[in-house]
Amino acid sequence: MRLALIAAAVTLLGLPAFAGGDTPANPDAKVYFVNLEDGATVSSPVTVVFGLSGMGVAPAGTEKDMTGHHHLLINRAPFGEGEEGADELANGLPADENHMHFGGGQTEATIELPPGTHTLQLVLGDAAHVPHSTPVVSEVITITVE
Known about the structure:
Layout: H1 2-13, E1 30-33, E2 41-42, E3 46-53, E4 56-57, E5 67-74, H2 85-91, E6 99-102, E7 108-111, E8 116-125, E9 141-145
């Protein structure tokens, strides 16, 4: 009985904490920051290079298996959490000052950020800006702009 409970707990801990839309993702896909790391100090404008492995990049509106386009989340709760968490999982990512869309298939961007501490996270979206059925998201990193 005790082993069964431990096995169930390990299984539950291994499951993602959120689910996305209907578009499947490669279970091994990863999105990450190529040129920035947690704790980095930078100056504005900040160039952000998006990395992706296990899937391809395609512009928004392109319905091709195992592809998506990048979204950059700035200064907000981690993906799937906070006020907008449930809505973005079901209806797609909004476009506002905290959610930058790169629907042209861009793999890098130069953005203006004011001095201070900022959080960044990458999310891969499908043709309609909806996260994949198993969302492909980066870790949240914190940078300081001097």
